[in-house]
Write a sequence for this structure.
């Protein structure tokens, strides 16, 4: 006898800002969102490790098509690291590789090292990351005990500020970092420790913001599930067009006939001087477009969001 398919609720399109708790993987959090909404098509815009907490932007229904655009912005974290302790994973979840007395490091020396990692930098992705090498994610290789060569990645640290420093045999430092997508904060902690000659590892991490989406807008999973029980899930969602408008440059298309042609997949003539932007008509997201800013010509649609029949007649 075949397995009975679980009944699903009506498909919901929207963006949900989740406050991921410690001990949950991002996949775990998405699974609970799926259950709360009773729908399968759910994705997120950037993984958080199980030991990390904070902002996880979750897209539901058709909004999953927006993931690549909503994850492109900078991210802000509150991080804590320990000096003198080096681990296999560059954080507290890994096995300790080395442990040395780092009491000679004071706040001034730590700040001097921290400033070296401000601006454009190169990072070697940790072995526990989701980066693929030879078609396989690094964390899968790491689970087998493998270590492979990784190409450095160019990232940008926009802001890096010491919040607190507690001296001792293994000094603990807390700092705030705003960085480009793809930056590994655990690798910043590891590399700062290496620069100081004592090693270091991340001991705590909370994502405060993902682009324009912040922790004070986020809902915890228990509150989400209670809202589902009360029939109030819709109150927690951000409309997809609003999420796009918060995230990227956009332009308003006034001409209704042009908007209808765009909804049919036509390029946008006379586009703004932006490499990637969204177009709206009458407050409704029509699509997302790209263009070569060094050459004249129309912008090509990367995503047509609104169907012609959905536009006002």
């Amino acid at each position: 006898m075949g397995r009975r398919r679980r009944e699903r609720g009506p498909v919901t399109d929207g963006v949900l800002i989740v406050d991921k708790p410690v001990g949950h993987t991002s996949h775990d959090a998405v699974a609970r969102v799926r259950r709360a909404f009773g729908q399968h098509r759910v994705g997120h815009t950037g993984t958080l490790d199980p030991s990390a907490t904070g902002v996880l932007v979750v897209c539901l229904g058709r909004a999953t098509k927006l993931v690549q655009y909503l994850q492109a912005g900078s991210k802000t974290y509150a991080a804590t690291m320990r000096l003198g302790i080096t681990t296999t994973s560059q954080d507290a979840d890994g096995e300790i590789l080395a442990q040395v007395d780092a009491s000679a490091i004071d706040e001034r020396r730590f700040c001097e090292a921290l400033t070296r990692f401000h601006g454009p930098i190169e990072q070697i992705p940790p072995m526990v990351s989701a980066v693929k090498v030879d078609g396989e994610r690094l964390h899968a290789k790491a689970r087998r005990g493998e270590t492979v060569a990784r190409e450095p990645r160019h990232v940008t640290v926009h802001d890096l500020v010491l919040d607190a420093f507690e001296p001792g045999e293994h000094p603990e430092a807390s700092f705030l970092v705003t960085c480009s997508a793809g930056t590994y904060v655990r690798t910043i902690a590891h590399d700062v420790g290496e620069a100081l000659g004592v090693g270091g590892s991340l001991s705590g991490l909370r994502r405060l913001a993902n682009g324009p989406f912040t922790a004070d807008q986020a809902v915890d999973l228990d509150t989400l599930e209670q809202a589902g029980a009360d029939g109030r899930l819709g109150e927690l969602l951000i409309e997809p067009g609003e999420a796009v408008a918060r995230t990227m440059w956009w332009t308003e298309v006034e001409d209704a006939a042009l908007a209808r042609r765009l909804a049919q997949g036509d390029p946008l003539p006379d586009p703004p001087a932006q490499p990637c932007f969204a177009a709206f008509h009458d407050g409704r997201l029509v699509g997302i477009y790209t263009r070569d800013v060094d050459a004249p010509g129309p912008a090509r649609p990367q995503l047509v969001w609104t169907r012609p029949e959905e536009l006002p007649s």
